[in-house]
Amino acid sequence: MDEIALTAWTLGLALGVRHALEPDHLAAVSTLVADQRGSRAGLVLGALWGAGHTSGLLLLGGVLAVLQRGLPPGVGALLEACVGVMLCALGARALWGSLRHDGVGTVVEHRHGPHRHAHPAPGEHVHLGQWTLLRRPLLVGVVHGLAGSGALVALAIAGARSAGERLGFIAMFGLGSVAGMTVLSALAGAGLQRYTSSPRVSRWVAGVAGAVSLVLGSVWGSAAVWALVAG
């Protein structure tokens, strides 16, 4: 590996960490962390969001990077609109949960083979053998990754000399986003666990997170739809 490729991949890693702190990502993950408080729960949610985000980047961005093609503006605007709709849906869900219950939904107990456990609301996760995989943060991450692939591919094409370097840049960017969101959501989960022992405070936290996500999603989606119509 030469110095140019190493520098590009290191830059990709740093940009990925920063990318995890963008407002739409923080709004989406905050509604998820408000559901599952605790540093361990936050860490898992952040890691799954990052895994989904990286999968989306590699799925679409990897193909475009190899072909050296940019994402058509119309497709990019449509994906951004999907992010806006998703943020609105997450925000509305968090608001509804804060008003109806204690901000975490109805706890349901069920069994998978010999294992019996409880979790908020049905359908929150799927099981792969003995592994439990939370579905919502993974899907939220995939949508964000698809929407962000256009700008990332343009950056990769401009700064890398070969398909291998471009794919490496995207992979390191994704790894950085996983690390950034995992640490951030773990800290947020630990903070929520410490300061939201009261059901009333818990509802307020979930409500505020939902309201922020709903407002940001409306603005984000409106801008994307306007760009789609104007284009």
Description:
With 231 residues, the chain is mostly helical. It has one domain (3-105, 123-230). The protein has helices at residues 3-19, 23-33, 39-67, 73-100, 135-159, 163-195, 199-230; strands spanning 107-112, 115-120, 125-128, 131-134. The strands form 2 sheets. It has a two-stranded antiparallel sheet. A two-stranded antiparallel ribbon has the order 3-4. α3 (39-67) packs antiparallel against α6 (163-195). The chain is flat, with a radius of gyration of 19 Å. It starts with a helix and ends with a helix. Residues 102-106 and 126-131 have low confidence and may be disordered.
Descriptive tags:
about 230 residues, mainly alpha, two-stranded antiparallel ribbon, flat
Quick overview of this protein structure:
With 231 residues, the chain is mostly helical.
Helices and strands, with pairings:
Layout: H1 3-19, H2 23-33, H3 39-67, H4 73-100, E1 107-112, E2 115-120, E3 125-128, E4 131-134, H5 135-159, H6 163-195, H7 199-230
Antiparallel strand pairs: 1-2, 3-4
Helix run count: 7
Shape: flat
Strand share of the residues? 5-15%
Let me know the largest β-sheet: 2 strands, antiparallel
H/E element sequence: HHHHEEEEHHH
Read across the widest sheet, the strand sequence of neighbours is 1-2
Structural class: mainly alpha
Mean pLDDT: 79
Please tell me how large the radius of gyration is.
Answer: 19 Å
**Which regions are unreliable across 5 or more consecutive residues at pLDDT < 50?**
102-106, 126-131
End-to-end distance: 41 Å
Fraction of residues in H or I helices: over 70%
Number of domains: 1
